Fold:
Amino acid sequence: MPIPFRSILRRLSLCALTFAAATGIAQAQLNFTISGSGANQIPIATANFVVNGNPTQDIPQIVRDDLTRSGLFKNVDAGATPLSETSPINYGDWKGRGADAVVTGSVNRLADGRFDIRFKLYDTGRQQDLGGIQLTSAPAILRLSAHRIADFIYEKLTGDKGVFSTKIAYVMKFGPQRYELQVADSDGFNPQNALVSREPIISPAWSPDGSKLAYVSFEQRKPVVYVHSVASGQRITVANFKGSNSAPAWSPDGRTLAVTLTRDGNSQVYLVNADGSGVRRFTQSNGIDTEGEFSADGQSVYFTSDRGGGPQIYRMAVGGGDAQRVTFKGDYNISPRPSPDGKSIAYVSRRGGRFQVYSLDLASSQEVLLTDTAKDESPSFAPNGKLILYATDMGGRGVLAMVSSDGRVKQRITTAQGGDVREPTWGPYLP
Structure:
């Protein structure tokens, strides 16, 4: 639930963290509810693939679900008959069924237990083979292979890179004394615990290469910033200074973190090398400066400050200089998140008692309300900039939600096994 600006740091003054790394699959699967759609949905038929060898995942169905969640596609019934990538295509027949695109493919088990996956994408209007890819997949990563197929289709038909094969991270709360930092596929499947705690975990942030998470923990009976390897669970201390250490955010090159420290009095933004060395003060004000976020090109840092009275978003060059105010509408704007292309920012604004996610076009200063919820926090762009993941409150329960960057497509993301979901961050593209 959103909190007053001067309480942003106060929530860091919690008791000590009992910390334990955990492995294995978490039990809280996320579920999506979708509303709205893109301005022009593409009708697409994804046929059942020809299958040999009993794969553990229904790859065509995963592809259909991915495309549906984007809000840009409308699934057309392809019928029950499986069609391989070599099956002949009757373009007129598919066009008559209302499909502008068709996907066919096959899944075959290899002698070593892996699966050979092939597919083709066709444009029925232009009667054109748009190509496909061949994947060799271990049984454990069949879902990832399906996401990569959906990414290929999305890019071919929209011109934008897909994000179905990326990861998200978020914090789950179960009861009064269990918090889990989880990493999952972008569709909420395959959640894994990276961190388990008896006290709150806050502010996870992905490194640009997707190999690490920075976060704040309390195991030393005060907030300390760590950088945690997702693969190994190993970590290093990045900020453990007098007072509060919070709000880590990565530079685009992964070499530097912006953090919020109170080591010299009021909350201010500092820069520190990713190995914890070279800390230097970035902002200089008599107010509260917090929530530093690097611009997409790494040349400046956005941050929240009450230096002018109420909290607003400012920007300052990494090399120093005067801070420039960015937000002017409304008297309470926090949590800036620059878009991957650097053309806009998402942020949380309080208007009429509602905390909602807005976007601001930096060139035109045009502002757009994106969400219809009322207690929003922690917006995070997908790496293609087309979706924003955020946390909100519905019926007294913390949930995640997504909204398209134009506000047309909205999704609610809940867990079937209870618990509050908070503090989301969307990971980068992976190699």
